[in-house]
User: Which sequence fits this backbone?
């Protein structure tokens, strides 16, 4: 199995992916690690130039300088010196191909798709060249790591951050307030009775006038409405009065 499984170039300030190698691995653990890498890419501005996130089966290594960072998913057996040497090589290749203006103006993911082939070539080289052939470069990186060790994270840290970013924070539930109904007062009962009586009276008078007016002429429709409208108004007036009188809630 290859030491270096996946690599990408991202913009540090916002974690925008600029280019990435082809993904040939589709195991569940690897796909989870890919999601964790994306989460970590959004937080690169919080960390120093070099760092590693350690997991059970895979490690994520990142190396950033100015506004460009290179990230890689490696097997647990991959030496840290080899991973950071690979990331440094990719970083130099990318910054030599694109200037800072183009990088800063990139607005869509994988804007530098043509660089993917370069990442593939460098990845293949590090996965297939013997340690002896890279010994001098690895020794230099190893000395730098001993002098200034990379920050070490755990993949569980990225899981927690991902939950916060997606709004999956813990919610403390409080018991809902209890409401109780107060008994209807005598004034409320009287108001309800009077409104019912007024509505019934207007309805009876309106129906009686309608029977008479429709036989005489259509011009009397206005008189019918004069009684029916107060009837409807009484009905609507009764509802809020009844609510105000009978539903006084308290916590």
Assistant:
């Amino acid at each position: 199995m290859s030491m270096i499984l996946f690599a990408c170039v991202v913009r540090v300030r916002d974690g925008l992916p600029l280019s990435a190698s082809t993904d040939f691995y589709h195991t569940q653990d690897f796909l989870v690690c890919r999601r964790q890498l994306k989460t970590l890419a959004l937080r690169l501005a919080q960390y120093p130039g070099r760092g590693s996130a350690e997991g059970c089966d895979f490690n994520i290594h990142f190396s950033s300088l100015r506004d460009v960072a290179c990230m890689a998913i490696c097997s647990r057996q991959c030496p840290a010196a080899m991973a950071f040497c690979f990331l440094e090589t990719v970083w130099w290749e990318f910054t030599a191909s694109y200037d800072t203006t183009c990088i800063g103006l990139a607005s869509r993911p994988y804007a530098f798709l043509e660089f993917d082939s370069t990442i593939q070539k460098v990845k293949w080289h590090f996965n297939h060249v013997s340690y002896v052939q890279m010994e001098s470069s690895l020794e230099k990186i190893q000395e730098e790591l001993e002098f200034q060790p990379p920050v070490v994270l755990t993949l569980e840290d990225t899981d927690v951050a991902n939950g916060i970013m997606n709004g999956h924070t813990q919610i403390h539930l409080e018991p809902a307030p209890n409401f109780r109904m107060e008994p209807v007062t005598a004034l409320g009962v009287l108001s309800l009775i009077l409104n019912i009586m007024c509505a019934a009276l207007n309805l009876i008078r309106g129906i009686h006038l309608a029977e008479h007016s429709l036989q005489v002429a259509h011009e009397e429709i206005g008189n019918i409405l004069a009684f029916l409208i107060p009837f409807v108004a009484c009905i609507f007036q009764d509802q809020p009065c009844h609510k105000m009188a009978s539903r006084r809630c308290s916590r």
The first helix runs from residue 28 to 41. The chain is about 55% helix and 15% strand.
